[in-house]
Amino acid sequence: MIHTDNPASGITDQEFALFRDLIFRIAGISMSSAKKTLVAGRLNKRLKFHGLTSFEDYHGLVTSKGSEDELQIAIDLLTTNETHFFREPKHFDFMRDRILSGHPKGRPLRVWSAASSTGEEPYSIAMQLADLLGEAPWEIVASDLSSQVLEKARRGLYSMKRADEIPRHYLTRFCLKGIGSQQGNFMVSRELRSRVRFTQVNLNSPLPDMGEFDVIFLRNVMIYFDNNTKREVVHRMLPLLKADGHLLIGHSESLNGVTDAYKLVMPSIYRK
Predict the structure, then answer these.
(1) 214 a catalytic residue
(2) Which domain-ending residue is among 61, 79, 97?
(3) How far apart are CA 256 and CA 245, in angstroms?
(4) Do 182 and 232 reside in the same domain of the chain?
(5) Is residue 1 in some structural domain?
(6) How many CB atoms lie within 10 A of CB 172?
(7) Residue 5, class by beta-carbon neighbours within 10 Å (0-12 exposed, 13-18 middle, 19+ buried)?
(8) pTM of the shown model
(9) Measuring CA to CA, which residue among 264, 248, 252, 258 is closest to residue 226?
């Protein structure tokens, strides 16, 4: 068994391999050796919390029977990624000009934010739909593997530093400025929060029955998958996308060589 007096001093190649294989098996995420420092940094607090002196011991803990809660904490720590309000604005332009403008009146519009993280993406979508669809029916389902970020997303509470990312008219209409103990923060309005349903989904496993969607946002998550995992994930999603529905992926991502089940509309935007 490998021990160090100070876990923060580093993680061995063998210990890193244990967590690399664990996160790939559960989440389909491929971590290169360049992520060793990140893994050590994010998990070190949990070693200290449990009084452990090696990452190998912590791996033994999270994989032992009855440690499902600690395993979820480890997954949360290793899969949480940075996100922003109205990230990659061209997708929101496309939603406005091509999807919403052509959507049949009276038919509910359903959108799935499939890697919603701390909620900035689904709330951005919700602001746009609430603004442009008026009284027309719409629904957003937002999912993530991490229970921790989903809880933060449900609260809808963010630092005012994030406010600059939101168009001013949306900020004044859909967000509340914090006062007192919440000074320096803002909260997404209760009305808008009620329109987004957050749920835990592992894209690397059989998907739950969530019905069909007009639009699926799968942005900036496939960069962590190998080609085989990408193929499996997008094919799993295919039955959940309506005929002629759109799949939006990150600008740095592509389905080229992954699948031909989706037709390229423009870079990072595909149609079933």
Answers:
(1) no
(2) 79
(3) 19
(4) yes
(5) no
(6) 11
(7) exposed
(8) 0.82
(9) 258
What domain range includes position 23? 7-79
Q: Which two tokens stand for residue 265?
A: 């509309």
Report helix, strand or coil for 255.
coil
Cα end-to-end span (Å), the chain: 51
pLDDT digits (tens, 9 = 90+) for 203-253: 989 999 999 999 999 998 888 888 898 999 999 999 999 999 999 999 989
Residue 2 lies in a domain: no
For residues 182 and 174, give the distance between their C-alpha atoms in angstroms, rounded to a whole number: 17
Q: Is residue 69 part of a domain?
A: yes
Instruction: Judge contact between 186 and 158, C-beta under 8 A.
Output: yes
Secondary structure letter of residue 86 according to DSSP: T
Q: Which two tokens stand for residue 170?
A: 């949306």
Catalytic residue, chosen from 20, 76, 110, 144, is: 144
Q: Total structural domains in the chain?
A: 2
SS (H, E, C) 100-112: HCCCCCCCCEEEE
Tokens 């029977």, located at residue: 65
In tens, the pLDDT along 150-170 reads: 999 999 999 999 999 999 999
CATH number at residue 63: 1.10.155.10
Contact 243, 210 (CB under 8 A): no
Residue 124: φ, ψ to 5°: -65, -45
**Which residue is catalytic, options 42, 154, 231, 236?**
42
Among the candidates 37, 58, 79, a domain finishes at 79
87: annotated active-site residue: no
Residue 219's identity, in one-letter code, is: R
